[in-house]
Amino acid sequence: MFVTDIRKDFYEVVANQRVALLVAADIDALCACKILQALFHCDHIQYTLVPVIGWQDLSTAFLEHKEQFRYFVLINCGANVDLLEMLQPDDDSIFFICDTHRPVDVVNVYNDTQIKLLIKQDDDLGVPSYDDIFRDDEEEDDGSGNDSDEGSEPSGKRRRFDEGAIERRIERQRARREWEARRREILFDYEQFEFHGTSAAMMFFELAWVLTKDTKDMLWWAIIGLTDQQIHDKITHMKYVTDVATMQRHVSRHNHRNEDEENSLSIDCMRISFEYDLRLSLYQHWSLYESICNSCYTSSSFKLWTLNGQKKLREFLADMGLPLKQVKQKYTSMDMSIKENLRDVIEESSNKFGMKEIRIQTFGVHFGFQNRFLASDMVHATAALLESTEKEESDIAHNFIKALDSLSRGNLDRLHVGIDHAKRKLLAIQQTVASCICTNLILSQGPFLYCYLMEGTPDVKLFSKPLALTLLCKYLLKAFVHSTRNKRCKLLPLIMAAPKDVEKGTVIVAGIPPESETSDKKNFFGRAFEKAAESTSSRTLHDHFDTSIIELKTEDRSKFLDALITLLS
Amino acid sequence: MDPSEVEFLAEKELVKIIPNFSLDKIFLIGGDLGPFNPGLSVDVPLWLALNLKQRQKCRILPPDWMDVEKLEEMRALERKEDAFTPVPSLYYMEITKLLLNHASDNIPKADEIRTLVKDIWDTRIAKLRLSADSFINQQEAHAQLDNLTLMEINTTREFLLDSLNFMFKLRSNLQPGSSKGQLTDY
């Protein structure tokens, strides 16, 4: 059931209890976790934090902790499957689920006792009504709404060969079959497309706000959670803009509270500001030139993998009057005169070169004299830390804690390490995109585009992780759409496969919806993958919380693809 | 003595806070505290004030002496005098550091206050060093310094005592007919 009063029905319930936090491995979940941890610290609520990366992890974690904990909080996992069926909990376990995955499983919505959803009841949820899906069995169909009959088929006890009774029975069975067919259709429509809802970090920030315990740190984490959804392409642009407006109200409230007297705040205090900033990743921590070359928007608009594209980039820089030497330096050492009007100058020139949306609404933070970050910088850095493949024993819990730490203001050195990793990741993505397009690795398979990364590709280890792979998919699709001339291919979705585990011989397969201006980001690959795997009995592992990302045995790749093609055409 | 021990002792000082919760009087070994009513100021030890502030349960009011003009006067006075001037509080340095680290949003003009307190501290430490230097040069037997705080004493304590001990050893070895032929370690 949906929780209406989050303070009364969630926070006060867990106030004196020990809670188990099961957190998925994405940035939005990390931010939500940070906010919740801060709230728990304020009120001395004991909790245990368990990072989970998939359904198996979730089940194992639950089994380990079900003896000691009654209350479980699941962040960004668990809403889109029948949780009670999967975990088989005892009757007194209560689950609070704050998940952005939609559609929410109908059992989770209509269970009144054990499952509490910390989700806003938006109008885009579209949950089918109760009567359409559930009904007591053996209900009389004459519409008088009387109690359900206890026995089975009427032909059990009463052996009356009454014409009327037989007719009524046949009528009932027919109505029942109709109802079931309609139910299947409704459920199919409801569960066909997968998409994402409001950020979990924003939900918990609202909880903090209702408790009047919201601080600037929590606001910043909520903003990072929202920006993560935008960078990894999980929500539509409209929704992003709406959510940014909500966050901006909070930002102005916080800023107004502190700057109203002549006694301004210490420079060390955190200041969050609304920025209409450039869509260049990490540009303030890199050189402007590198950032333009490695950001998805600019590199695909210029087509920087071609010689022509490089020329156009040079023209672009010349048009703005920026000397190449300045632009290739670190941003912080660029001339002040250039930095002052940089955004407006870039916007003007990019309009001439066909990039109408080079600027995007976002937020920036600054504290101390030296530390200025944009929300997107933090997202890239933390994502790089979360999925870092640096050490040999890249333990998921280890990386999770490192990424979680990097979100705190006190751990700036970790954040800078993350920024370095993120730069390498963006470079790797750019190079992979360039090589895929130049060597025509993207094949049109009919209903979708397909690309397979061979094992020897440089940096292919980076792409064995889901977040990095989805980012690569998004960039690749954008670049492909800009580079191809085939009108039909521009509207196709993309499936990408990359080697995941060389010893076990598996690949990770991810599918993303087609690229379009008004895309509603609804992904049907989850169901498609399931059906294709079933029909070919390929050995797949649908472990990830996003159903559009699966693991597959390398040998089964071709038959899986064939099944998909037949399924989707 | 470790500086963290001195800071620990400093945390017993009382500061004024404005809580946002209510609680009856609490009886601790060190004394009674409270009762706490939202919006009414109450005196609590610094350790409790910081803990409550971190849990967002109170707002800390800066002590009276933590004001830009007063500190500027004190700094001017300190620079003028040769001896040590009376301090605003026996633990001024620790209180400033703790409050500015954890509650700088409750303290107006926090940056200037940090600079002023640091200036006062630097002047006093310079005077202390001069005084220790002249003490050793003139081989005095005793000295009296007023208005020193524990933290300042603590900065020179180890060095001064060790060097005086060592000089004593050297001196006693220079005297003829001394029984101590070799330097002994403590």
Automatic annotation (TrEMBL), chain A:
BP terms from Gene Ontology: cell division; DNA replication initiation; double-strand break repair via break-induced replication; mitotic DNA replication preinitiation complex assembly
Record carries keyword Glycosyltransferase: no
GO molecular function: chromatin binding; DNA replication origin binding; single-stranded DNA binding
Bias (Acidic residues): 136-152
One term under GO cellular component: DNA replication preinitiation complex
Compartments reported by the entry: Nucleus
Lineage: superkingdom: Eukaryota
Keywords, alphabetical: Cell cycle, Cell division, DNA replication, Nucleus
Primary location group: nucleus
Listed Pfam families: CDC45
Segments of this protein annotated with the region Disordered: 136-162
Protein family membership: Belongs to the CDC45 family.
Protein name in UniProt: Cell division cycle 45
Organism listed in the record: Nothobranchius furzeri
Automatic annotation (TrEMBL), chain B:
The keyword Nucleus belongs to this UniProt entry's keyword annotation: yes
Entries under InterPro entries matching the protein: GINS_A (IPR021151), GINS_bundle-like_dom_sf (IPR036224), GINS_Psf2 (IPR007257), PSF2_N (IPR056784)
Segment forming the signal sequence: none
Family annotation (Pfam families): PSF2_N (PF25005), Sld5 (PF05916)
Gene Ontology biological-process entries: DNA replication; double-strand break repair via break-induced replication
Organism superkingdom: Eukaryota
Alphabetical list of CDD domains matching this protein: GINS_A_psf2, GINS_B_Psf2
Keywords assigned: DNA replication, Nucleus
DNA replication complex GINS protein PSF2 N-terminal domain residues: 2-61
Subcellular localization: Nucleus
GO-annotated cellular components: CMG complex; GINS complex
Segments forming domain GINS subunit: 65-167
The protein's role, per its UniProt record: Required for correct functioning of the GINS complex, a complex that plays an essential role in the initiation of DNA replication, and progression of DNA replication forks. GINS complex is a core component of CDC45-MCM-GINS (CMG) helicase, the molecular machine that unwinds template DNA during replication, and around which the replisome is built.
Oligomer and partners: Component of the GINS complex.
Family: Belongs to the GINS2/PSF2 family.
Annotated protein name in UniProt: DNA replication complex GINS protein PSF2
